[in-house]
Amino acid sequence: MAIRLGDVAPDFTAETTEGTISFHEWLGDGWGILFSHPKDFTPVCTTELGGFAARKGDFDARNTKIIGVSVDDVASHNQWSADIGETQGTALNFPLIGDENRVVADLYDMIHPNANDTLTVRSVFIIGPDKKVKLTLTYPASTGRNIEEVLRVLDSLQLTAGYSVATPVNWTYGGDVIIANSVSDEDAAVKFPKGFTRIKPYLRTTPQPNL
Ligand code: BEZ
Fold first, then answer.
1. Averaged over 152-161, what is the pLDDT?
2. Beta-strand relationship, 177-179 and 133-139
3. Quick check: CB of 113 below 6 Å from ligand 1?
4. How far is the CA of 43 from the centre of ligand 1 (A)?
5. Distance CA 129, CA 115 (A)
6. 71 CB less than 6 Å from ligand 1?
7. How many CA atoms lie within 13 A of 111 on its CB side?
8. pTM of whole model > 0.85?
């Protein structure tokens, strides 16, 4: 069954390029991102893994662990890893799950048979410290993901988890945000001391509150 926002991320134990992990235990108290790759030794996936590896410091800075999964075994991942380092300039620096039996792929509904009945789609699951799914993304095999967008949405999720705000279209870190409609004008004046702009009763903006 499809995983929906607010569901507890399914737990599992799996072999990875960094040893056996128990997913929830591995996540610990922080945020996590699980993303799937259709197949080892494929070009788009090679660029994506190098891309995530190059930005791992940005995920660390957001208290967020990243982990990939591909429906090949760990021995294959380890061989592929050498190609990733060689061609992408950054070696794999986070675990890649060996999922040759498609246990994780099935648990997270990553195989969409009408797209491809053996390979996974490119799924992204962002998981909060409460182990609940905060965001899902699904891309076809032919389209590599945009890591800037993954970081952008992570920034929004982390900000809106801590303040009564939402982020508008094309928001990026540092931009003005929208005050939740559950907050009255009187309370907004207290909660958002930098002030707010009342464009409509339902559309009030304020500078990003945690800066
Ligand atoms: C790729 O990563 O390039 C890829 C993977 C599976 C199918 C098609 C392309």
1. 98
2. unpaired
3. no
4. 6
5. 32
6. no
7. 17
8. yes
| Mean of per-residue pLDDT scores for the chain | 97
Please tell me if the CB atom of residue 45 comes closer than 6 angstroms to any atom of ligand 1: yes
Please tell me the CATH code under which domain 13-144 is placed.
3.40.30.10
Cβ of 39 less than 6 Å from ligand 1: yes
Identify which of 44, 116, 118, 122 to mutate to test ligand 1's pocket (most ligand atoms within 8 A of the CB).
Answer: 44
95 CA → ligand 1 middle, Å: 20
Q: Which of 19, 207, 13, 184 is nearest to 103 (CA)?
A: 13
| CA dist., res. 173 & res. 208, Å (int) | 8
Ligand 1 atom 8, closest CA = 141
Residue type, 150: V
Amino acid sitting at position 98:
G
- Residues serving a catalytic function are 45
Q: Position 8: which residue type?
A: V
Q: Looking at ligand 1, which atom is closest to the CA of residue 48?
A: 2
Q: What would the pLDDT profile of 41-86 be if each residue is shown by its tens digit?
A: 999 999 999 999 999 999 999 999 999 999 999 999 999 999 999 9
Domain spans, the chain:
13-144, 163-206
